[in-house]
Design a protein that fits this description.
430 residues; alpha/beta; Rossmann fold; six-stranded mixed β-sheet; four-stranded parallel β-sheet; 15 helices; 14% strand
Protein backbone atom coordinates (compact mmCIF):
# COMPACT_ATOMS: atom_id res chain seq x y z
CA UNK A 1 0.00 0.00 0.00
CA UNK A 2 2.93 2.37 0.67
CA UNK A 3 4.04 2.20 -2.97
CA UNK A 4 0.85 3.56 -4.42
CA UNK A 5 0.80 7.10 -5.79
CA UNK A 6 -2.98 7.62 -6.01
CA UNK A 7 -6.01 5.86 -4.57
CA UNK A 8 -9.72 6.47 -3.93
CA UNK A 9 -11.27 7.01 -0.50
CA UNK A 10 -14.93 7.07 0.49
CA UNK A 11 -15.69 10.45 2.00
CA UNK A 12 -18.33 8.89 4.27
CA UNK A 13 -16.85 5.68 5.70
CA UNK A 14 -13.19 5.86 4.74
CA UNK A 15 -13.05 2.66 2.68
CA UNK A 16 -10.19 2.71 0.18
CA UNK A 17 -10.27 1.57 -3.43
CA UNK A 18 -7.59 1.38 -6.09
CA UNK A 19 -7.32 4.34 -8.44
CA UNK A 20 -8.17 1.95 -11.28
CA UNK A 21 -11.51 0.87 -9.74
CA UNK A 22 -14.24 2.16 -12.10
CA UNK A 23 -17.05 2.20 -9.52
CA UNK A 24 -18.68 5.57 -8.96
CA UNK A 25 -19.68 5.11 -5.33
CA UNK A 26 -18.35 3.32 -2.27
CA UNK A 27 -19.34 -0.37 -2.41
CA UNK A 28 -19.77 -0.43 1.38
CA UNK A 29 -21.94 2.62 2.09
CA UNK A 30 -22.73 4.23 -1.30
CA UNK A 31 -20.81 7.35 -0.31
CA UNK A 32 -18.96 9.59 -2.77
CA UNK A 33 -15.36 8.79 -3.59
CA UNK A 34 -12.40 11.16 -3.51
CA UNK A 35 -9.04 10.73 -5.21
CA UNK A 36 -6.03 11.04 -2.94
CA UNK A 37 -2.39 11.44 -3.98
CA UNK A 38 0.88 10.92 -2.19
CA UNK A 39 2.59 14.27 -1.60
CA UNK A 40 4.91 15.25 -4.45
CA UNK A 41 8.51 14.15 -3.67
CA UNK A 42 10.05 17.62 -3.59
CA UNK A 43 10.38 20.67 -1.39
CA UNK A 44 7.65 23.28 -1.34
CA UNK A 45 9.80 25.72 -3.28
CA UNK A 46 10.75 22.96 -5.68
CA UNK A 47 7.11 22.23 -6.51
CA UNK A 48 6.40 25.89 -7.26
CA UNK A 49 9.54 26.09 -9.38
CA UNK A 50 8.58 22.96 -11.32
CA UNK A 51 5.09 24.27 -12.09
CA UNK A 52 6.38 27.72 -13.00
CA UNK A 53 8.97 26.22 -15.35
CA UNK A 54 6.15 24.77 -17.43
CA UNK A 55 4.46 28.09 -18.14
CA UNK A 56 4.57 28.88 -21.82
CA UNK A 57 5.08 25.29 -23.01
CA UNK A 58 3.45 25.19 -26.45
CA UNK A 59 3.35 21.50 -27.42
CA UNK A 60 2.66 18.17 -25.77
CA UNK A 61 0.85 17.37 -22.50
CA UNK A 62 2.39 20.25 -20.55
CA UNK A 63 0.81 22.77 -22.94
CA UNK A 64 -2.47 21.99 -21.15
CA UNK A 65 -3.54 24.17 -18.23
CA UNK A 66 -4.66 20.93 -16.57
CA UNK A 67 -1.78 18.56 -17.25
CA UNK A 68 0.79 21.20 -16.31
CA UNK A 69 -0.23 20.16 -12.78
CA UNK A 70 -0.19 16.43 -13.50
CA UNK A 71 1.61 15.49 -10.23
CA UNK A 72 -1.34 17.04 -8.37
CA UNK A 73 -4.06 15.70 -10.68
CA UNK A 74 -3.27 12.20 -11.95
CA UNK A 75 0.41 11.45 -11.43
CA UNK A 76 0.19 7.88 -12.74
CA UNK A 77 -1.17 8.89 -16.15
CA UNK A 78 1.18 8.40 -19.09
CA UNK A 79 1.39 10.71 -22.09
CA UNK A 80 -1.57 9.10 -23.90
CA UNK A 81 -3.82 11.81 -22.50
CA UNK A 82 -7.12 12.93 -24.01
CA UNK A 83 -6.37 16.64 -24.29
CA UNK A 84 -7.05 19.49 -26.71
CA UNK A 85 -5.21 21.17 -24.76
CA UNK A 86 -7.51 22.98 -22.33
CA UNK A 87 -7.11 25.49 -19.52
CA UNK A 88 -4.72 28.44 -19.78
CA UNK A 89 -7.74 30.71 -19.32
CA UNK A 90 -7.28 34.43 -18.62
CA UNK A 91 -7.53 36.25 -15.32
CA UNK A 92 -9.18 39.49 -16.39
CA UNK A 93 -9.22 42.94 -14.81
CA UNK A 94 -12.44 44.73 -15.79
CA UNK A 95 -12.72 48.03 -13.85
CA UNK A 96 -16.36 48.57 -14.85
CA UNK A 97 -17.34 45.18 -13.41
CA UNK A 98 -15.32 45.80 -10.25
CA UNK A 99 -16.97 49.21 -9.81
CA UNK A 100 -20.44 47.70 -10.26
CA UNK A 101 -19.70 44.99 -7.71
CA UNK A 102 -18.24 47.56 -5.30
CA UNK A 103 -14.83 45.95 -4.80
CA UNK A 104 -11.92 47.55 -6.68
CA UNK A 105 -9.71 44.44 -6.61
CA UNK A 106 -12.10 42.12 -8.43
CA UNK A 107 -10.67 39.84 -11.11
CA UNK A 108 -12.55 37.51 -13.44
CA UNK A 109 -11.24 33.98 -14.07
CA UNK A 110 -12.85 33.26 -17.44
CA UNK A 111 -13.37 29.55 -18.00
CA UNK A 112 -15.45 30.24 -21.09
CA UNK A 113 -12.14 30.32 -22.98
CA UNK A 114 -11.85 26.52 -22.82
CA UNK A 115 -12.19 24.49 -26.07
CA UNK A 116 -15.94 23.80 -25.78
CA UNK A 117 -16.65 27.08 -24.00
CA UNK A 118 -16.90 26.05 -20.34
CA UNK A 119 -14.91 24.89 -17.32
CA UNK A 120 -16.20 21.35 -17.87
CA UNK A 121 -13.31 20.70 -20.25
CA UNK A 122 -10.88 20.73 -17.32
CA UNK A 123 -12.72 17.90 -15.64
CA UNK A 124 -13.46 16.02 -18.83
CA UNK A 125 -9.85 15.78 -19.98
CA UNK A 126 -9.07 13.88 -16.77
CA UNK A 127 -12.34 11.93 -16.70
CA UNK A 128 -12.08 10.70 -20.28
CA UNK A 129 -8.38 9.95 -19.85
CA UNK A 130 -9.35 7.76 -16.89
CA UNK A 131 -12.13 6.15 -18.95
CA UNK A 132 -9.48 5.19 -21.49
CA UNK A 133 -7.20 3.88 -18.72
CA UNK A 134 -9.95 1.57 -17.36
CA UNK A 135 -10.89 0.55 -20.93
CA UNK A 136 -14.45 1.86 -20.74
CA UNK A 137 -16.60 0.74 -23.68
CA UNK A 138 -18.78 3.87 -23.46
CA UNK A 139 -19.08 7.05 -21.41
CA UNK A 140 -22.24 8.83 -20.28
CA UNK A 141 -23.54 11.82 -18.37
CA UNK A 142 -26.69 13.67 -17.41
CA UNK A 143 -26.45 17.31 -18.35
CA UNK A 144 -28.06 20.73 -18.49
CA UNK A 145 -25.79 21.42 -21.45
CA UNK A 146 -22.15 22.18 -20.68
CA UNK A 147 -21.25 18.76 -19.30
CA UNK A 148 -22.81 17.08 -22.32
CA UNK A 149 -21.04 19.35 -24.78
CA UNK A 150 -17.69 18.69 -23.14
CA UNK A 151 -18.22 14.95 -22.79
CA UNK A 152 -19.26 14.67 -26.43
CA UNK A 153 -16.14 16.51 -27.60
CA UNK A 154 -13.65 14.60 -25.46
CA UNK A 155 -15.28 11.25 -26.18
CA UNK A 156 -15.01 12.02 -29.90
CA UNK A 157 -11.35 12.90 -29.40
CA UNK A 158 -10.77 9.60 -27.58
CA UNK A 159 -12.85 7.51 -29.99
CA UNK A 160 -15.18 6.29 -27.21
CA UNK A 161 -18.98 6.14 -27.75
CA UNK A 162 -20.84 8.76 -25.69
CA UNK A 163 -24.36 8.95 -24.28
CA UNK A 164 -25.73 12.32 -23.11
CA UNK A 165 -29.01 12.46 -21.17
CA UNK A 166 -30.68 15.90 -21.04
CA UNK A 167 -34.01 17.31 -19.81
CA UNK A 168 -36.22 18.02 -22.82
CA UNK A 169 -36.78 21.72 -23.45
CA UNK A 170 -34.41 22.81 -20.67
CA UNK A 171 -31.07 22.92 -22.49
CA UNK A 172 -29.89 26.09 -24.23
CA UNK A 173 -29.65 25.74 -27.98
CA UNK A 174 -25.94 26.62 -28.07
CA UNK A 175 -25.14 23.70 -25.77
CA UNK A 176 -27.47 21.14 -27.37
CA UNK A 177 -26.02 22.05 -30.76
CA UNK A 178 -22.56 21.10 -29.51
CA UNK A 179 -23.71 17.75 -28.13
CA UNK A 180 -25.29 16.81 -31.44
CA UNK A 181 -22.44 18.14 -33.57
CA UNK A 182 -19.77 16.23 -31.65
CA UNK A 183 -21.67 13.00 -32.31
CA UNK A 184 -22.93 11.90 -28.89
CA UNK A 185 -26.03 9.76 -28.71
CA UNK A 186 -28.49 12.24 -27.21
CA UNK A 187 -31.46 11.25 -25.04
CA UNK A 188 -34.21 13.83 -24.33
CA UNK A 189 -35.96 13.04 -21.04
CA UNK A 190 -39.43 14.28 -20.13
CA UNK A 191 -38.26 15.47 -16.73
CA UNK A 192 -35.73 17.70 -14.98
CA UNK A 193 -31.98 17.34 -14.52
CA UNK A 194 -32.37 15.31 -11.34
CA UNK A 195 -34.44 12.73 -13.24
CA UNK A 196 -31.72 12.61 -15.89
CA UNK A 197 -29.02 12.06 -13.29
CA UNK A 198 -30.97 9.19 -11.73
CA UNK A 199 -31.14 7.55 -15.15
CA UNK A 200 -27.44 8.11 -15.76
CA UNK A 201 -26.55 6.59 -12.38
CA UNK A 202 -28.68 3.54 -13.13
CA UNK A 203 -27.08 3.19 -16.56
CA UNK A 204 -23.64 3.34 -14.98
CA UNK A 205 -24.44 0.60 -12.49
CA UNK A 206 -26.56 -1.75 -14.59
CA UNK A 207 -25.30 -1.22 -18.14
CA UNK A 208 -21.63 -0.76 -17.37
CA UNK A 209 -21.09 2.65 -19.01
CA UNK A 210 -18.54 4.89 -17.36
CA UNK A 211 -20.36 7.84 -15.78
CA UNK A 212 -18.74 11.26 -16.04
CA UNK A 213 -20.95 13.52 -13.98
CA UNK A 214 -19.36 15.50 -11.17
CA UNK A 215 -19.74 12.62 -8.71
CA UNK A 216 -16.83 11.12 -10.65
CA UNK A 217 -13.73 11.93 -8.55
CA UNK A 218 -11.48 12.19 -11.61
CA UNK A 219 -13.64 15.01 -12.98
CA UNK A 220 -12.99 17.01 -9.82
CA UNK A 221 -9.24 16.52 -10.14
CA UNK A 222 -9.36 18.42 -13.43
CA UNK A 223 -11.61 21.12 -12.04
CA UNK A 224 -9.14 21.70 -9.19
CA UNK A 225 -6.80 23.25 -11.72
CA UNK A 226 -9.02 26.33 -12.06
CA UNK A 227 -7.82 27.25 -8.58
CA UNK A 228 -4.24 26.09 -9.12
CA UNK A 229 -3.99 28.17 -12.29
CA UNK A 230 -5.45 31.35 -10.80
CA UNK A 231 -3.12 31.00 -7.80
CA UNK A 232 -0.17 30.66 -10.17
CA UNK A 233 -1.37 33.67 -12.16
CA UNK A 234 -1.32 35.62 -8.90
CA UNK A 235 2.26 34.56 -8.17
CA UNK A 236 1.00 32.05 -5.55
CA UNK A 237 -0.31 34.92 -3.43
CA UNK A 238 -3.92 33.89 -2.66
CA UNK A 239 -6.85 36.30 -2.96
CA UNK A 240 -9.10 36.89 0.03
CA UNK A 241 -12.12 35.38 -1.72
CA UNK A 242 -12.91 33.02 -4.60
CA UNK A 243 -16.54 33.34 -5.71
CA UNK A 244 -18.06 30.57 -7.83
CA UNK A 245 -21.50 29.76 -9.29
CA UNK A 246 -22.99 26.70 -7.59
CA UNK A 247 -25.33 24.15 -9.15
CA UNK A 248 -24.37 20.50 -8.82
CA UNK A 249 -21.55 21.66 -6.47
CA UNK A 250 -18.71 19.91 -8.30
CA UNK A 251 -16.67 23.11 -8.52
CA UNK A 252 -17.33 24.02 -4.90
CA UNK A 253 -16.03 20.60 -3.86
CA UNK A 254 -13.09 20.72 -6.26
CA UNK A 255 -12.07 24.22 -5.15
CA UNK A 256 -12.06 23.19 -1.50
CA UNK A 257 -9.89 20.17 -2.30
CA UNK A 258 -7.51 22.28 -4.39
CA UNK A 259 -7.04 24.82 -1.61
CA UNK A 260 -6.54 22.15 1.04
CA UNK A 261 -3.89 20.38 -1.02
CA UNK A 262 -2.20 23.60 -2.14
CA UNK A 263 -1.76 24.56 1.51
CA UNK A 264 -0.61 21.07 2.59
CA UNK A 265 1.95 20.92 -0.23
CA UNK A 266 3.30 24.42 0.40
CA UNK A 267 2.08 26.18 -2.74
CA UNK A 268 0.25 28.76 -0.60
CA UNK A 269 0.59 29.86 3.01
CA UNK A 270 -3.06 30.72 3.66
CA UNK A 271 -6.44 29.63 2.34
CA UNK A 272 -8.87 32.11 0.75
CA UNK A 273 -12.55 31.95 1.61
CA UNK A 274 -14.99 30.37 -0.82
CA UNK A 275 -18.36 31.88 -1.70
CA UNK A 276 -20.76 29.55 -3.50
CA UNK A 277 -23.53 31.44 -5.29
CA UNK A 278 -26.82 29.85 -6.33
CA UNK A 279 -29.84 31.17 -8.21
CA UNK A 280 -32.82 31.82 -5.94
CA UNK A 281 -34.95 29.43 -7.98
CA UNK A 282 -32.42 26.63 -7.54
CA UNK A 283 -30.89 27.19 -4.12
CA UNK A 284 -31.01 23.99 -2.03
CA UNK A 285 -27.40 24.40 -0.89
CA UNK A 286 -28.05 27.97 0.25
CA UNK A 287 -31.06 26.74 2.25
CA UNK A 288 -28.92 24.08 3.90
CA UNK A 289 -26.21 26.64 4.72
CA UNK A 290 -28.74 28.86 6.48
CA UNK A 291 -29.53 26.10 8.97
CA UNK A 292 -25.91 25.13 9.50
CA UNK A 293 -26.17 22.18 7.09
CA UNK A 294 -28.42 20.40 9.58
CA UNK A 295 -30.77 19.46 6.71
CA UNK A 296 -30.04 18.54 3.14
CA UNK A 297 -32.65 20.46 1.18
CA UNK A 298 -34.04 19.55 -2.24
CA UNK A 299 -36.06 21.88 -4.47
CA UNK A 300 -37.77 21.95 -7.85
CA UNK A 301 -35.32 24.10 -9.80
CA UNK A 302 -36.48 27.05 -11.93
CA UNK A 303 -34.01 29.69 -13.08
CA UNK A 304 -32.87 31.47 -16.22
CA UNK A 305 -29.35 30.27 -15.33
CA UNK A 306 -29.83 26.81 -16.81
CA UNK A 307 -26.28 25.63 -16.08
CA UNK A 308 -26.99 25.79 -12.32
CA UNK A 309 -30.67 24.81 -12.48
CA UNK A 310 -30.30 21.79 -10.18
CA UNK A 311 -32.55 20.96 -7.25
CA UNK A 312 -30.63 18.07 -5.67
CA UNK A 313 -26.86 18.64 -6.01
CA UNK A 314 -24.84 15.44 -6.37
CA UNK A 315 -21.65 16.75 -4.71
CA UNK A 316 -23.43 18.05 -1.62
CA UNK A 317 -21.33 16.36 1.10
CA UNK A 318 -18.01 17.27 -0.50
CA UNK A 319 -19.17 20.87 -0.97
CA UNK A 320 -20.20 21.13 2.70
CA UNK A 321 -16.66 20.10 3.62
CA UNK A 322 -15.22 22.74 1.28
CA UNK A 323 -17.33 25.53 2.78
CA UNK A 324 -16.47 24.50 6.32
CA UNK A 325 -12.74 24.14 5.67
CA UNK A 326 -12.46 27.56 4.02
CA UNK A 327 -14.79 29.44 6.39
CA UNK A 328 -16.89 29.95 3.30
CA UNK A 329 -20.38 31.23 2.67
CA UNK A 330 -23.30 30.20 0.49
CA UNK A 331 -25.89 32.62 -0.87
CA UNK A 332 -28.59 32.97 -3.50
CA UNK A 333 -29.20 35.77 -5.99
CA UNK A 334 -32.28 36.48 -8.07
CA UNK A 335 -32.56 35.95 -11.82
CA UNK A 336 -32.85 39.73 -12.20
CA UNK A 337 -29.55 40.20 -10.36
CA UNK A 338 -27.91 37.50 -12.49
CA UNK A 339 -29.07 39.12 -15.72
CA UNK A 340 -27.96 42.58 -14.63
CA UNK A 341 -24.53 41.24 -13.63
CA UNK A 342 -24.32 39.44 -16.97
CA UNK A 343 -25.13 42.66 -18.85
CA UNK A 344 -22.32 44.43 -16.97
CA UNK A 345 -19.83 41.63 -17.69
CA UNK A 346 -20.88 41.48 -21.33
CA UNK A 347 -20.61 45.25 -21.78
CA UNK A 348 -17.06 45.13 -20.37
CA UNK A 349 -16.03 42.99 -23.33
CA UNK A 350 -15.61 39.83 -21.24
CA UNK A 351 -19.00 38.22 -21.86
CA UNK A 352 -20.36 35.11 -20.13
CA UNK A 353 -23.35 32.79 -19.94
CA UNK A 354 -26.06 33.59 -17.36
CA UNK A 355 -24.93 31.06 -14.73
CA UNK A 356 -21.43 32.55 -14.81
CA UNK A 357 -22.73 35.95 -13.82
CA UNK A 358 -24.08 34.55 -10.56
CA UNK A 359 -20.55 34.85 -9.16
CA UNK A 360 -20.38 38.57 -9.94
CA UNK A 361 -23.91 39.18 -8.63
CA UNK A 362 -22.98 37.23 -5.51
CA UNK A 363 -19.82 39.26 -4.98
CA UNK A 364 -21.86 42.46 -5.16
CA UNK A 365 -24.36 41.15 -2.63
CA UNK A 366 -21.58 40.13 -0.24
CA UNK A 367 -19.94 43.55 -0.53
CA UNK A 368 -23.24 45.29 0.19
CA UNK A 369 -23.83 43.10 3.25
CA UNK A 370 -20.30 43.76 4.54
CA UNK A 371 -19.13 40.15 4.30
CA UNK A 372 -16.63 41.04 1.58
CA UNK A 373 -14.73 44.21 2.49
CA UNK A 374 -14.11 46.82 -0.17
CA UNK A 375 -10.37 46.33 0.35
CA UNK A 376 -10.51 42.55 -0.21
CA UNK A 377 -8.94 40.92 -3.23
CA UNK A 378 -11.60 38.85 -4.98
CA UNK A 379 -11.60 36.42 -7.89
CA UNK A 380 -15.01 35.68 -9.44
CA UNK A 381 -15.11 32.62 -11.68
CA UNK A 382 -16.96 32.90 -15.00
CA UNK A 383 -17.82 29.33 -15.91
CA UNK A 384 -19.07 29.59 -19.50
CA UNK A 385 -18.94 31.46 -22.79
CA UNK A 386 -21.35 34.21 -23.83
CA UNK A 387 -22.74 32.20 -26.77
CA UNK A 388 -23.69 29.18 -24.65
CA UNK A 389 -27.18 30.60 -24.10
CA UNK A 390 -27.95 33.02 -26.97
CA UNK A 391 -31.74 32.93 -26.49
CA UNK A 392 -31.46 34.47 -23.03
CA UNK A 393 -29.16 37.19 -24.37
CA UNK A 394 -31.52 38.11 -27.19
CA UNK A 395 -34.56 38.06 -24.92
CA UNK A 396 -32.82 40.38 -22.46
CA UNK A 397 -31.81 42.95 -25.07
CA UNK A 398 -34.80 42.70 -27.43
CA UNK A 399 -37.66 41.95 -25.06
CA UNK A 400 -40.56 44.36 -24.94
CA UNK A 401 -41.91 43.60 -21.45
CA UNK A 402 -40.41 45.88 -18.78
CA UNK A 403 -37.08 46.28 -20.55
CA UNK A 404 -33.94 46.50 -18.42
CA UNK A 405 -32.15 49.87 -18.34
CA UNK A 406 -29.06 47.95 -19.51
CA UNK A 407 -30.79 46.47 -22.55
CA UNK A 408 -28.96 47.23 -25.81
CA UNK A 409 -31.79 47.26 -28.30
CA UNK A 410 -31.07 47.01 -32.01
CA UNK A 411 -32.34 49.97 -34.03
CA UNK A 412 -34.13 49.48 -37.36
CA UNK A 413 -33.59 52.24 -39.95
CA UNK A 414 -34.11 53.13 -43.59
CA UNK A 415 -30.95 52.83 -45.76
CA UNK A 416 -30.03 56.54 -45.38
CA UNK A 417 -26.87 58.11 -43.96
CA UNK A 418 -28.83 60.64 -41.95
CA UNK A 419 -30.50 57.74 -40.16
CA UNK A 420 -27.09 56.52 -39.04
CA UNK A 421 -26.30 60.06 -37.87
CA UNK A 422 -29.55 60.13 -35.90
CA UNK A 423 -28.73 56.85 -34.15
CA UNK A 424 -25.21 57.99 -33.27
CA UNK A 425 -26.52 61.30 -31.90
CA UNK A 426 -29.09 59.54 -29.77
CA UNK A 427 -26.44 57.24 -28.28
CA UNK A 428 -24.17 60.20 -27.47
CA UNK A 429 -26.96 61.92 -25.51
CA UNK A 430 -26.55 61.30 -21.73
Amino acid sequence: MNERVSWQVCASCGQELAASDPRQRCPACRGLLELRHRAPPMTHGGLRALLDSRLGVRRGPLASGVWRYRELVLPEADDSLVSYPEGNTPLLARPAVAAWAGVPELLLKHEGHNPTGSFKDRGMTVGVTQARRVRATAVACASTGNTGASLAAYAALAGIPALVIVPKGQVAVGKLTQVLAYGARTILVRGDFDACLSLALAAGERLGVYLLNSINPFRLEGQKTIVLELLQQLGWEPPDWIVVPAGNLGNTAAFGKALREACEWGLISRVPRLAAVQAEGAAPFALSYRDGFATRHRVQAHTVATAISIGNPASYERAVQAIRETDGVVLAVSDAEILEAKAVVDASGAGCEPASAASVAGARQLVRSGVIRKTDRVVAVLTGHLLKDPDVVLAYHQGTDAPSPRANRPVEIEPKLEEIERVLSARATP
